[in-house]
């Protein structure tokens, strides 16, 4: 069976463009096919001859490991200037601090670039919650973002409002004004038999390395009638979800009309860890809703179980939140290390991360970790005296947590669209992103861009001693490289160790400096500095994926 027949269909399809392109692609594909048959083994791929600047890597490693400033940066961005919810004055102060550091490191034109239509900002200035009877105890809790505060100090009985159907509303009509209410039942809180922190195993990295070429997203007409039992189960489930959402919306409207003082919600997480989110729209036209408080599950459970025994629970609550309607836009932070090569200096290599965070912790692993690694990477290049051929541009986005708003705005403002890239868009060689926590880089997701596999494998070689060795054809989502990948500009997120990202820190009150791992952060800055350096100096820009139109049959 010839190797060609083992090539995934998508890779075959990508061979269709021009003859010269085909022969080059074909050559690359054959080598890759042979390799795909045995997995994307970085060391084999690295032997494909992509040059590695060992002298520069040595300088980068020395500066990043022996003179690291990454943890100091992180303490400033978290302890002093955290959290960094988009639209809040704290985020602006953090940005001013960052621009000042970029200027101190000698980058050119460090700046804050505005983008429009984010909506109103929001900050929480005070949260006090205390059960006063039957037994006093303080409550761990956080207002959900973009919700209003209480009208001063509220002293009230806590009421469990059980509304599961329209018939239940009458039970509470006219009885809830000024009350603190609970709407949700208690949930199971299972013991944790698995460790909170984890690193990727060799087996899981091998699985990634063996992943097939991702299939382009299905296009064309949506499936009309459910074909299988599973389909109809899915449809039934969707209907049930929609029905629940409808009751929940009517319940919330009722609660609002009843003028309750606040709603307590069972916070996701346990052990004092509370994950928060946004509770209401940022649209300035949206009327203020009801204060919503995510409460630690252990405290939520104690109150509810007491109430269910007919024992009244009294509580004091004061929440002070401020909405910022002055500037309804937001910003990105940008700066450059100018290119030096007459031919290449107008081409650009970008690196970035989102600067914004949620509000309960200090946004340490999400995403001061990514921002500081990028900042430290450019500081390291400057301190090592490395002058790139292409221009290197650092970009720190806001609005990521609300939908990649900052990075998408940047691409829209500067780089164009997939079908019509601007001149600047054509000159971007690639974009490197970091946004999966504090964990060490272990490799790169290729977003289906197989042609970069041997290139990145070679660039990882100098860090193989640190476990940086995996390239996978897989896509990964949920963060800012998608804004670039979406218009056909090579955009990559690194594969990282999980540490406590999913179990403890991602959007929680415990996302603080203590969760950051210094050796991982130093390594990440070094790997990123090296990748960006090599991308800025290689003879050709990074190869781009054949456009989806040329892949789809
Ligand atoms: Zn993030």
Structure description:
The chain is α/β, with parallel strands linked by helices and 553 residues long. The chain folds into two domains: 325 residues, Zn peptidases (Aminopeptidase, 3-Layer(aba) Sandwich); 161 residues, 3-Layer(bba) Sandwich (Glucose Oxidase, domain 1), CATH 3.50.30. Helices cover 36% and strands 18% of the residues. It contains 18 helices and 16 strands. The strands form two sheets. The protein has an eight-stranded mixed sheet with strand order 1-10-12-11-13-16-14-15, sandwiched between helices. An eight-stranded mixed sheet has the order 3-2-9-5-6-7-8-4, covered by helices on one side. The chain is elongated and about 75 Å long. The two termini are 23 Å apart. The N terminus is likely disordered. The structure holds zinc ion. Zinc ion binds next to helix 11.
Per DSSP, what share of the residues sits in E-state strands of 2 or more residues? Answer: 15-25%
* Small-molecule binders: zinc ion
* Name of the CATH class of the largest domain: Alpha Beta
Radius of gyration: 26 Å
Q: Please, what is the CATH homologous superfamily of the largest domain?
A: Zn peptidases
């Amino acid at each position: 069976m010839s190797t060609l027949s083992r090539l995934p269909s998508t890779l075959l399809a990508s061979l269709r463009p021009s003859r010269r392109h085909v022969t080059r692609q074909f050559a690359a594909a054959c080598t890759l096919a042979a390799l795909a048959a045995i997995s994307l083994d970085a060391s084999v791929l690295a032997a494909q001859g992509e040059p590695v600047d060992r002298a520069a890597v040595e300088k980068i490693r020395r500066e990043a490991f022996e003179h690291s400033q990454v943890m100091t940066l992180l303490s400033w961005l978290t302890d002093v200037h955290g959290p960094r919810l988009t639209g809040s004055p704290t985020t602006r102060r953090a940005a001013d601090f960052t621009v000042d550091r970029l200027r101190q490191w000698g980058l050119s034109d460090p700046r804050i670039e505005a983008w429009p239509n984010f909506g109103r900002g929001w900050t929480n200035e005070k949260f006090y919650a205390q059960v006063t009877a039957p037994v006093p105890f303080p409550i761990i809790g956080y207002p959900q973002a973009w919700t209003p505060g209480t009208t001063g100090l509220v002293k009230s009985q806590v009421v469990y409002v059980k509304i599961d159907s329209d018939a239940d509303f009458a039970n509470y009509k006219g009885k809830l004004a000024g009350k603190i209410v609970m709407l949700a039942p208690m949930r199971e809180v299972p013991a944790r038999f698995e460790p909170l922190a984890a690193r990727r195993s060799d087996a899981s990295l091998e699985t990634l390395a063996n992943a097939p070429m991702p299939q382009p997203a299905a296009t064309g007409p949506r499936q009309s009638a459910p074909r299988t039992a599973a389909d109809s189960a899915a449809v039934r489930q969707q209907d049930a979800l929609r029905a629940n959402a409808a009751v929940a919306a009517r319940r919330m409207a009722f609660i609002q009309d009843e003028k309750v003082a606040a709603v307590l919600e069972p916070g996701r997480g346990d052990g004092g860890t509370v994950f928060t989110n946004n509770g209401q729209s940022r649209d300035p036209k949206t009327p203020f809703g009801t204060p919503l408080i995510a409460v630690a599950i252990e405290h939520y459970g104690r109150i509810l179980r007491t109430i269910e025994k007919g024992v009244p629970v009294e509580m004091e609550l004061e929440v002070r939140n401020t909405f910022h309607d002055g500037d309804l836009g937001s910003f990105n932070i940008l700066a450059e290390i100018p290119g030096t090569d007459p031919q290449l200096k107008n081409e650009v290599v970008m690196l970035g991360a989102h600067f914004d965070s949620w509000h309960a912790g200090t946004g340490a692993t999400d995403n001061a970790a990514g921002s500081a690694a990028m900042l430290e990477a450019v500081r390291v290049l400057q301190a090592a005296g490395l002058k790139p051929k292409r221009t290197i541009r650092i970009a720190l986005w806001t609005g990521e947590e609300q939908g990649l708003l900052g990075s998408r705005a940047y691409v829209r403002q500067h780089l164009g669209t997939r079908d019509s890239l601007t001149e600047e868009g054509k000159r971007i060689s690639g974009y490197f992103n970091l946004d999966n926590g504090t964990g060490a880089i272990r490799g790169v997701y290729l977003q289906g861009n197989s042609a970069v596999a041997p290139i990145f494998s070679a660039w990882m070689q100098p860090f193989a001693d640190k476990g940086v060795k995996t390239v996978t054809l897989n896509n990964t989502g949920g963060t800012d490289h998608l804004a670039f990948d979406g218009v056909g500009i090579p955009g990559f997120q690194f594969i990282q160790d999980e540490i406590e990202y999913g179990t403890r820190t991602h959007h929680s009150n415990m996302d603080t400096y203590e969760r950051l791992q210094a050796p991982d952060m130093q390594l990440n800055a070094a790997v990123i500095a090296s990748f960006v350096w090599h991308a800025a100096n290689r003879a050709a820009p990074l190869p781009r994926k054949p456009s989806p139109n040329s892949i789809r049959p």
